[in-house]
Automatic annotation (TrEMBL), chains A, B, C, D:
Taxonomy of the source species: Bacteria, Bacillati, Actinomycetota, Actinomycetes, Micromonosporales
Membrane-spanning ranges: none
Record-given protein name: Prephenate dehydratase
Domain Prephenate dehydratase: start-end pairs: 8-186
GO molecular function: prephenate dehydratase activity
Catalytic activities: prephenate + H(+) = 3-phenylpyruvate + CO2 + H2O
InterPro entries, per the entry: ACT-like_dom_sf, ACT_dom, Chor_mutase/pphenate_deHydtase, Preph_deHydtase, Preph_deHydtase_CS
Organism: Planosporangium thailandense
Keyword annotations of the record: Amino-acid biosynthesis, Aromatic amino acid biosynthesis, Lyase, Phenylalanine biosynthesis
The keyword Lyase appears for this protein: yes
EC annotation from Swiss-Prot or TrEMBL: 4.2.1.51
Length: 313, 313, 313, 313
């Protein structure tokens, strides 16, 4: 219900993974219920069915890339909108039941993606250890806690939850790796503009002809709307149909974004609005180009009205 | 005064030239007063001063090209708007006092542009005749009527007015040459859209940098507004400033044209609206691209309103 | 070594997964060695080190989306090129040790992505069964073969290798889901053009300013080069730098592609060529626009040469 | 003959007009023959027929605008190329047989365009004088010299040639008005690049559809070629065909211009090269955008060659 903050949260589980850690950065979630889901579709279906108010699911992460299942679920079925993004630094720790020296570690449980992200660190610091696949970071921590392996790669939250001793922190090879999550709700009025917002769209084009995507980008560029992310995915429904997932700088309440959205609506096979929400992080976006502020649009509208009335321009 | 049809007309003189002939194709002008002006500035100033309701002046002709003085006068000074265009076939006749055989003609009076347009015909049919410059087509006819020369090249109207016998018709080398005139008034509500209209603009850009004109055309193209004429002229005012005269398919009352005009207003140094008026001639324009009809804009606006309200899209 | 077909292949393991199945569609791989790697980086490093001639790794799949680790590994480090793509239908089967009726199945092992792709089928046909996560499709099959679970979701190849009885075929919810793999080698002359090829690029732009991506696409569109896939990824190296992964229709040996690549090289911060190779599948691409065939470029080059020499154009 | 400087010049007459004045700014013309022609077609035909080496004709002037007859003659018939432009300030003087006070002048002979350009000056300084049309500036001067009128508006050269006393200098209303002339020859190697050159083109497009001109400009912009002038003219030949006259910054010998020309050749119905020649005047053009210098093209070509050979990029 618009205006009523969400209290029942669902997140991509299991507990102790990055999704829970991300959810807990949201104040309202600290005071609400937090239920793990086994999959992204399960989490989103809980929101669609009204069993939860909001779901926290991954959109993309630095190693695995886009999370296709989230994009597809947002593009299909009952409409949902993103109301918030959470960007979480990917911080891996090496945890063990006790404070053993690194040189004595022979086996390490790790989710394959976590393993991939810490490859160089592992080679340098525990070259002799065998890394064994686990189903999730939380499962890896649990296996180490159960004594199945000497240590585990996991999230800081997961290490604490499994009562592991942290042998090493920040072991990911890329210090600035992040995972980006979306808080997703049923449609409702978007959060108020903050001056630094993102708008996410799913745009369908009918053919992969030369220039179809160019036309989409031109609709944005001509209104000064910047693009911060783009992903194409073939749609299963029909041969030769593509869907593009776009993150644009700006808010649906701004005139330039509104005109751009209308342009896409007019020229594309379909457009699905997936939400306007504050940009996470502290990096300032590029300023909008001259002539694209709301005041510029208002001036132009007033001028047009004068012309149409036959008055002095 | 809006709604009151003009009754006092001024045209680029002298009498008997193509401008008068063009003016007389307008029914209201048949019943009003028709006063020749000595120059385009004089004609337009009469309208600006309220001494005339409308002025008929040339915009471009097939041989001389754009009529720079008309463009400059429309772009500068008190605003004026075009309410009608008249496209007149350039039909030259060879006239003489009496019905002499072509072979006996030794001297022909002609305005230099008329001479240029009939060059091939003259070489083929009166190769021995000397062509002597005259100040206008009407002056050439008058000189032939006065017996100063054996014949004159002039407009059909001019031949009749000077009581010349037409020795040969349609002597212009290009059968489809035309002159395009504009009927110009003080600002007022434009004529109602007919479904096949033109809109004329003067667009100023600040620099001749790569892409400045491209940006102008993109503002039009992205709304499906077609361009039928473009002329660039350097402006005297300031170094490096350019003005482009554009004729676009469509009417200022149409949504796509309105949005395009607002776009130009926002991104260009200046835009002057020079009128929306019915296209002359019978050739149908290219249809507007899909998604650019008023109904498409209305659908897109309704969709945006739903999105902004948080309702189902 | 150019000209010598690869004989030592590595693939993303373990054995029995789709990657091995994809590799075995390549004739040369049937006669060469096929070694599983534990991760995409491990597979590619084997090629870089000369321990293998080619690696088969996933690029994207219908459910998981882009395989970020593959893209990142191709964009970074020692250059590698794609020489072939393999598009494999995602065909899941439900296998069990013996031919039990579906109604008796209580537990099913499945990789989470496989689970997600078969959700609707599972709900309809084995609603009472509990689905338990496995680390890979092959691991799920092995667990069912070992009697740990009543059944497993796996690839057809994996079912056969684990000697499972197939209880149901084609159980994926989307019949046309596919996974796309790349065969990757050290740089060498690309395979000869076939008339239906793809070229893969990693393009870096310096800023996320409005129009930067538009400029990239314009370089392609103006030469008639079509885009079939685009993915953006932030680069870790430097703030505000983006890399776009592009799949373009055409071959580096074609003039239009060559000119487009040079254009990108000139205007982008960096471009990495990731290979030209035959397009998989039977769907014909959109034909190149008029004026972009090699013959058109040859004609234009000859014309330019004549102009420069001052001869007749 | 290439390499041999022209010695036989023809110019748009009569003698004593701006065209002759413009021609005499060219050193070679000072030592060659200078023959007046009665019209632009006559001047150009003299070059085509080999009766002259070069013709000086007007391209555009500040008041009259484009000189359509020159453009049409260059676009049609036997090819000709511009080898030099001359930009002449429009300097009008008021001349009389003797040094009479302005207050005593009752009649002034003037070419209508000259009259239009000096309107404000005349109104302010000789308000009581009647201005009478003359066929050219030279004819006006001659009439004043013959005593037919009290004074004449003419070019400084024309005043001197008619032995008139200059009563007032610089009487044009716009101090920076200019006329632009072209020196036109039969095709031959263009003058060497100077670093600040113009290239003139006539570009034909088949339809006036939305985006046709946009496509032309994109071919230029994507190679960093700037546009300093554009004029559209309908072609008589075929309905719906347009020809655009373009002046572009750069020389046909430059790589970026060459690639742009080839692009136009490929995508337009027709392109006629009308010459590369040094820009007149002292105003520096906007620098070419990054990545479009000859060295950038050479770097990109070398990179492409390495890629195609399969070597390290």
């Amino acid at each position: 219900m618009p205006g009523v903050p969400p209290t029942r949260f669902v997140f991509l589980g299991p507990e102790g993974t990055f999704a829970e850690q991300a959810l807990r950065t949201i104040p309202a979630a600290e005071h609400g219920t937090r239920t793990p889901a086994r999959s992204v579709p399960e989490a989103l279906d809980a929101v669609r069915a009204g069993d939860a108010d909001a779901a926290l699911v991954p959109l993309e992460n630095s190693i695995g890339g886009q999370v296709g299942v989230t994009l597809d679920e947002l593009a299909d079925g009952e409409p949902l909108v993103i109301t918030r993004e959470v960007v979480l630094p990917v911080q891996f720790v090496l945890g063990a039941r006790t404070a053993v020296p690194l040189g004595e570690i022979r086996s390490i449980a790790a989710h394959p993606q976590a393993h991939a992200q810490c490859r160089h660190w592992l080679r340098a610091h525990v070259p002799a250890a065998t890394v064994v696949d686990a189903l999730s970071n939380a499962a890896a921590a649990a296996a180490a806690a159960a004594g199945e392996y000497d240590a585990a790669i996991c999230a800081p939250l997961g290490a604490g939850r499994a009562r592991l001793t942290v042998l090493a922190k920040d072991i990911a090879d890329h210090a600035d790796a992040v995972t980006r999550f979306a808080l997703v709700s049923r449609p409702g009025p978007p959060p108020a503009p903050t001056g630094d917002d993102l708008t996410t769209l799913a745009v369908y084009i009918a053919h992969d002809r030369v220039g179809a995507l160019l036309a989409v980008l031109t609709e944005l560029a001509v209104r000064g709307v910047n693009l911060t992310r783009i992903e194409s995915r073939p749609t299963g429904e029909r041969l030769g149909r593509y869907v593009f997932f776009l993150d644009c700088s700006g808010h649906v309440a701004e005139v330039r974004m509104g005109e751009a959205l209308q342009g896409l609506r007019r020229v594309c096979a379909d457009v699905r609005f997936l939400g306007s929400y504050p940009r996470a992080g502290t990096e300032r976006p590029a300023p909008a180009p001259p002539g694209t502020a709301d005041a510029d649009f208002a001036d132009a509208a007033a001028w047009l009205a004068r012309i149409r009335a036959g008055g002095p321009a």
